[in-house]
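Two proteins follow. First one:
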Amino acid sequence: MNIVIADCFDTWEHRVDLIYKVLKEEGHQVTCLLSDYRHIDKTRRTEKKRDTIFFTAEPYKKNISPARVHSHGQLSKDIFTWVEDHKSVIDILWVLAPPNSFIYDAARVKQKWPKMHLIIDIIDLWPETMPVGRLKYLPFFYVWRLLRDHNLRVANVVVTECNLFKEVLGRKSDGIKVETLYLARENRGYEPNLCLPNDKLALCYLGSINNIIDIAAIGQIIRECRKQNPVIFHIIGDGEKKKELLKVAEDSGAKVIDHGKIYNQEEKKGIFDSCHYGLNIMKPSVCVGLTMKSIDYFEFGLPIINNIKGDTWEAIEKYDCGVNLGKKKLHLSVEENSNQRLNSRHFFEKYLTLEIAKDKIHTILKDIR
């Protein structure tokens, strides 16, 4: 089959790469339609990529701004104009969303050409996951949400990144075939080489340090942990809130080790092997079921201190692979850490490997045949 994948953000390109790899191995012809604008770095990308067409996106500097809304709208128009021009030779259109304009424009093409199968892949929920407080209830955000909700029914299959998104969509997805496809990694195996400090508690934060991270809660975690042991706080990542996180961590009494950005998995493993827990802490308003950082933690058997509901919360409760922050005061047991490490790795092997993802993608394709 001739399959086209459309995606707006380079931050989700690992998912595009996963889908592309599985489909190509099955012998399908696959074309990827991507943006040439790097969302986090706010720079233009110039590299070439196999079976990929890059579309020019208007630049924007602020993540919440009219310029960003305009950029996504223009990119969507350009990408789906291309799709409409080629619709007669496309068997399946697999669209990652947000932006919600991608769903609207993909549905418009599908309605004009019903023979083309449409898969909508929900990677995030806008405006539900956006840190804008009660502004979410303004008319603009209501209409923005409807761009998604009113057009999902046009899809042959809706794919969600986590089960939580399926629950949030609720009755809006009644009568629609919905499948959860977790992000996945090749199972390279994991041999721990632990070097945990005996007299200290080592914590790690991995990922973007932005306005959806609950930095105040991280400071409180450090203060609670210091009542038991001195705290070492490893940071892997960068973002607009990094200076604030560094200050809060230091003011809370942690010895901070800033590793900067690290993409090499072996380097991450070395740091994780020296930590007792990884932090998965977001603001209460954020609606995310399974974060990228938690997948890294699971892959390398690092137990998680978590406050987000949904898939990660349920995994920790069911598999005892970390600690969910609730009404009780935080109490970490270094003695329990060994079992939790094994359980964390077990969850990765059971749900987050490439082989599991392949089976799920095959199921999704069968659903539309």
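Second one, unrelated to the first:
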Amino acid sequence: MASNAESYADTRHHMSSDLTEGNLVNVIWRMSWPLVVTMLSCATVDLIHVHIAGMLSASSQAAVGLVDQMMMIAVLIATAIGSGTTAVVARAIGAGDRNGAVLATSQALRVAAVVGALLSVGAFAAGKLLLPQYCSSPEVLTEAAAYLSVITWYLVPFAIVCSINAAIRGLGSTTLQLQVVLLMMVTDVVLNYGLVSFVWPTARTGLAGIAIVAIVSSTAGLLLALYKLNRSPLAGSISNLDKLCWYQTKRILRIGLPCALLELTRVTSTFVLFFILSHCRQPQEAVASWALGMRLEAFLFLPLDALALGAAAIVVQNLGAMRIDRAWSASWTIAGLGLGLMVVASALMFSLAEPIARLGSSDANVITYTTDYLRLNAVCEPFLALEVILGAILQSMGDSRVPMSIGILSNWIVRLPVAALLGLSAGLGPAGVWLAMTVSNILAGLLMLTRFCSNDTWTMLSSSRAWTNHPAASIARTGLVGHRRAQRRLSLCP
């Protein structure tokens, strides 16, 4: 029995990046900083696309802005489904089950290929239907249609890259994701600026040239991701693509689909907010201040989202290793870091709201509305930290339907009706809409905190003796992960 336990520990030591051992703060830092750089890189690429389009014409820039807003929905869905991959792989890694992790990754690759194809077709169809509703310029619509017909193919390799990155995060590493994204960014920047400025007759190909570059860069990232995957402890995932495991596939989708629906809920609610703001007094200034405020606020979310992604892998890998006490401590450590970060950021945002707004606009009304946006949202940022981080942990634990329900409640049932009531009926204008956003974010944060504390997983912490005597802890100690009953208790694929 002792030799089995030693073998179990040795397997986990070689498979994971020690998320279940060592100082928690160091582990969190190691997981989070590459994710922050990754997100900054992605934001940089989006800005470059807009700038390159502006080099062509104003209509091209407008077309890119319209299409990329719709593409962002598909990108968020592909990324969110990857949450299921991280959760399943991390739990298997924590339990020392390499075969389970490899099989889960292979199923995730199959799911990603199908999701990428469906998103590509869906984005094209939705774009054809919705673009005329948001723009009446024939020139912009013509360029947008040409751009849309090519850029949607980008979603196929992108979805697979997201799946591989998610699996590697479950393994306990985020540097691979950073390497892949940096390669995609460098390829995109070099080809766009080099070909547009010197070689490629972009004036003839129009925005299709930018779309082709995006596809090439994502394909390059995919090739690097596949190469790194084959050299990782998850090697063998590609060779297992012919093996179908519905149990693992369902587990991935059971977590990933509610996460995707939550993101879809958040994004689509912004279209309704746009409609409400466009019917306030001084609608152009109201919409402009909203767009400016969101862009400024988005920089605060980068470290928060990085902490959330890192938390999912850390907590679930410890749950797989039956180290529930460490998973509990990691959850609160990461939530505390996020909360402290947002308290400091909120204080700065509140006190510097007007100077920041003046940097983004010279219009007096836009400055006033943006200042109100930043100050009111600064009040709820700490609650947003609880919602994002604790929600990501709950999703990775398999409790993804409750965060989805909280998102629907806060965004659609609370935020939008209150925004219409205060902004339009009460005549408060944009300030009423900002207040509705603040109230809904505070509510979502409190509800997520309540759900997290009441999750059944943590009831095992009621006493250390209760956990010590728990059957699953005995399985973890003895290393009997190959036993069928142990597999069921550890929620691995039979």
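SUMMARY FIELD: The longest helix spans residues 283-320. Residues 258-462 form one domain.
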